[in-house]
């Protein structure tokens, strides 16, 4: 990790200076423009007609993007962090001079935790507002609702959540991990360091946990020659887990592997603790608890559990220190930053860099220019867009501490290639 | 499934499973009691029941913060004070709602469904705007966490015992209030014949307001207690509303005993099936069973004989 970072941060800091210079130069003459002769004479801020051939909301001084998350309804719990991260990224980009000499303006729409609303608002952003890109969606259901819309109207969606894979689109950049990236490394780790052979799989009952568990089971049985001693799914919002906790006690698995989400999450861990299951003795590995969730669960109920994802707030690298400091400055000392929040922060940055590489805001050109884009200042370290529009990223295992933060106990040495259609796992 | 385990292990698990069923039973009774009073006695379909519970949960959260910051020495007992405050907060909100909205709708019981559904959405958004969209973690005093080891495998959850004790206490209190006190007699009189009750000098409006307030107050206490086992967030109330209505309707809306019997049946069925089948399947079979029984007995398990 370190070698990558060192090289790249040098590269990026020179580029940052360059950009700032670029941005400062054209500002004054542009303001003086009457609009009639609006083609700026500076190469640094290319003419609008050249960078925008498809009628997007791009002017000589501004470019408009959309933010589409739920700020009301059930999902507001999770999506609030993503909105905050995207606004922070946009503000930072603007402070550096914007994109191709244009400040980013955002239009925020509320998906209201309702999937048809997501589709409708996406259409509004693309058709009425002509946004150059949309940062948005959180649940797979909302993404599935928005996908046909961005494909039909040729928009660009930056999607932040870790998800089940089995999807790829020209019009979407997936900044979170797909399932195999998140799952396999964690299972290998727990198998190797804890000698884990028997697993109990438990999740909420919808597409993401089911697909994830399917991948986990195949990996446990075929690659780790381990055993799955139980597999259970509970309806979303289920609040009573005493029966399944008794099953843990009976089957005594080496690892409880959990993908319980939402309000159920809180109930699950509180009841585990109440039932006397001590997570320092019983290994529990989850793929669904970030720092955000621990806020609701309570640090004392989750201490010593392991979480497997690509980002933790406690990551010790200069990029992340800057990011955490900036985030807290903007949104308050008490806010916590989870995996998805960080992934959402990547969206505007990746888009900006792609636009600059393509030299255009046109969606077709951005889709084409995306593969190979590197973001060296990413809080998670270093990421790169794969030709399948997912990100190369590392996977990490964190051990929960009583204060609600994670101690990183494992990190894959290499970036893991995204593989949304994994062979042998379907 | 059981061939790999010793008899002692199986015995312990069955004891624990029985206990899990009892906890679920207490939880069901606690969340359904408030609704049983409002729906059963007044005929108001209160879809905002879950939000009254969550108000209690938030009151508990703030009480815990208050104790933590100002009187940490008494943190061990804050939960009792929080429950009392939750009762009065939810009860007061309930009475206000009754006065502003419900009393205009007594003659249109189906409209109360729509109105209280709207109320629940409004309350959720109010919680979200005031307390933030994220869930809050309610810290418990140490003595309420963990479990009492009875044998090596059998462990009894302290919060489970707490909920059970609370449920028994509240059930007895409600039963005494409804069937032994003068006020309870007035409530039942109003339920049976509003006009006649008014004619013999009972202030029916006042009775309505206090009954509704009592139901909401009990919901608040339930919400306060559930901070031990569940989440506290703007939409957490929605997690309970389906089960609550299931218990009340299945039990026969007007009977307190019916509510208890129905809570017992559903909780035992669900808890046992969750152990032998998967969680989602258990829920499906429970709902299926309830549907079939309600088809055969549309009034629910218990019916009070009233002259119509």
UniProtKB/TrEMBL annotation, chain A:
Gene3D superfamilies xref list: 3.40.50.2300
Pfam family membership, one: Peripla_BP_5
PROSITE patterns: TAT
Signal peptide (UniProt feature, chain positions): 1-43
Keyword list, A-Z: Signal
Superkingdom, taxonomy of origin: Bacteria
NCBIfam families cross-referenced by the UniProt entry: urea_ABC_UrtA
Protein name from the UniProt record: Urea ABC transporter substrate-binding protein
Organism (species): Ancylobacter koreensis
Lineage: Bacteria, Pseudomonadati, Pseudomonadota, Alphaproteobacteria, Hyphomicrobiales
From TrEMBL, chain B:
Bilayer disposition of the protein: Multi-pass membrane protein
Membrane-traversing stretches: 12-40, 52-71, 77-97, 109-127, 158-179, 212-233, 239-263, 275-296
Keywords: Amino-acid transport, Cell membrane, Membrane, Transmembrane, Transmembrane helix, Transport
Membrane found in the keyword field: yes
Coarse class of the protein's main subcellular location: membrane
Coiled-coil spans in chain: none
Subcellular location: Cell membrane
InterPro entries named among the record's database cross-references: ABC_transp_permease, ABC_UrtB_bac, BCAA_transport_permease
NCBIfam families: urea_trans_UrtB
Family under the similarity heading: Belongs to the binding-protein-dependent transport system permease family. LivHM subfamily.
Record's protein name: Urea ABC transporter permease subunit UrtB
Taxonomic source organism: Ancylobacter koreensis
Gene: urtB
């Amino acid at each position: 990790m370190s070698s990558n970072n060192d090289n790249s941060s040098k590269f990026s800091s020179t580029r940052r200076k360059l950009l700032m210079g670029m941005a400062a130069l054209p500002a004054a003459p542009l303001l003086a423009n009457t609009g009639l002769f609006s083609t700026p004479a500076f190469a640094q801020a290319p003419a609008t007609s050249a960078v925008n051939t498809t009628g997007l909301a791009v002017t000589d001084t501004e470019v408009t993007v959309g933010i589409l998350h739920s700020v009301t309804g059930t999902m507001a719990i999770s999506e609030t962090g993503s909105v905050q991260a995207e606004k922070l990224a946009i503000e930072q980009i603007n402070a550096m001079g914007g994109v191709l000499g244009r400040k980013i303006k955002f239009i925020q729409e509320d998906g209201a935790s309702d999937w048809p609303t997501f589709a409708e608002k996406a259409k509004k952003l693309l058709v009425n507002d002509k946004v150059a890109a949309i940062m948005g969606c959180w649940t797979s259901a909302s993404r599935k609702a928005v996908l046909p819309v961005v494909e039909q109207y040729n928009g660009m969606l930056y999607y932040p959540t870790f998800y089940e894979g089995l999807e790829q689109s020209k019009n979407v950049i997936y900044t979170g991990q797909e399932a195999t990236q998140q799952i396999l490394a964690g299972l290998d780790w727990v198998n190797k360091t804890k000698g884990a052979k028997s697993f109990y799989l438990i999740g909420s009952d919808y597409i993401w946990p089911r697909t994830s568990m399917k991948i986990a089971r195949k990996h446990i049985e075929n690659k780790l020659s381990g055993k799955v001693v139980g597999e259970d799914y509970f309806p979303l919002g289920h609040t009573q887990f005493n029966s399944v906790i008794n099953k843990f006690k009976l089957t005594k698995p080496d690892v409880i592997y959990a993908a319980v989400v939402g309000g159920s999450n809180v109930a699950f861990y509180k009841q585990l603790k109440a039932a006397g299951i001590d997570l320092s003795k019983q290994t529990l590995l989850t793929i669904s608890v970030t720092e955000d969730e621990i806020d609701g669960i309570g640090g004392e109920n989750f201490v010593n559990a392991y979480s497997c994802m690509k980002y933790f707030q406690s990551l010790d690298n200069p990029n992340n220190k800057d990011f955490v400091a900036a985030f807290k400055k903007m949104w308050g000392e008490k806010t916590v930053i989870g995996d998805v929040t960080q992934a959402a922060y990547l969206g505007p940055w990746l888009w900006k860099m792609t636009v600059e590489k393509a030299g255009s805001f046109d969606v077709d050109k951005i889709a084409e220019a995306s593969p190979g884009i590197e973001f060296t200042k990413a809080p998670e370290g270093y990421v790169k867009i794969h030709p399948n529009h997912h990100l190369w990223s590392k996977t990490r295992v964190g051990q929960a501490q009583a204060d609600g933060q994670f101690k990183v106990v494992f990190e894959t040495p290499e970036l893991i290639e995204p593989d949304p259609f994994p062979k042998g796992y379907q | 499934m059981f061939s790999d385990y010793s008899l002692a292990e199986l015995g312990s698990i069955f004891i624990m499973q029985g206990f899990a069923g009892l906890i679920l039973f207490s939880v069901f009774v606690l969340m359904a009691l408030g609704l049983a009073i409002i729906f059963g006695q007044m005929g108001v379909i209160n879809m905002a029941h879950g939000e009254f519970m969550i108000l209690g949960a938030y009151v508990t959260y703030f009480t815990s913060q208050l104790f933590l910051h100002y009187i940490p020495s008494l943190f061990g007992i804050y939960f009792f004070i929080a429950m009392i405050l939750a009762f009065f907060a939810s009860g007061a909100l309930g009475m206000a709602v009754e006065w502003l909205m419900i009393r205009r709708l007594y003659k249109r019981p189906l409209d109360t469904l729509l109105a209280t559904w709207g109320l629940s959405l409004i309350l959720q958004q109010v919680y979200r705007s005031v307390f933030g969209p994220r869930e809050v973690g309610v810290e418990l005093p140490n003595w309420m966490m963990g479990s009492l080891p009875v044998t090596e495998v059998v462990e009894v959850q302290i919060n489970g015992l707490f909920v059970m004790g609370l449920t028994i206490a509240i059930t007895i209190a409600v039963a005494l209030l409804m069937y032994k006190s003068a006020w309870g007699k007035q409530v039942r009189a109003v339920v049976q014949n509003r006009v006649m009750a008014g004619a013999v000098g009972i202030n029916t409006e006042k009775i309505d307001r206090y009954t509704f307030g009592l139901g909401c107050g009990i919901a608040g206490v339930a919400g306060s207690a559930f901070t031990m086992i569940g989440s506290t967030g703007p939409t957490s109330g929605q997690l309970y509303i389906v089960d609550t209505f299931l218990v009340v309707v299945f039990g026969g809306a007007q009977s307190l005993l019916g509510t208890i019997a129905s809570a017992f049946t559903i909780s035992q069925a669900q808890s046992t099936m969750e152990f032998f089948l998967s969680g989602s399947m258990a829920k499906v079979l429970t709902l299926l069973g309830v549907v079939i029984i309600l088809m055969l007995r549309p009034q629910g398990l218990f019916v009070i004989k009233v002259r119509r």
